[in-house]
Amino acid sequence: MHLEGETMQKRKLGNSNLEVSAIGLGCMGMSHGYGPPADKKEMVALIKKAVERGITFLTQPKSMVRSLMKNL
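User: That's the sequence. What structure does it adopt?
Assistant: Structure tokens below.
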């Protein structure tokens, strides 16, 4: 649950200096993997809403990253 005024907790990603949100968004089902692809406009809106709420850790199969990023 997101409460207004709260900031997303952050975590270091592995041994890197990258910092990501403590909560991630798995995107595999948006394009394939769990049946037919979801509606593109709805999925882009979902990703944008997640980023607005502080989520910066998005996971997607390597094979689908180019397609996902092209649509953002």
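Residues 40-52 form the longest helix (13 residues).
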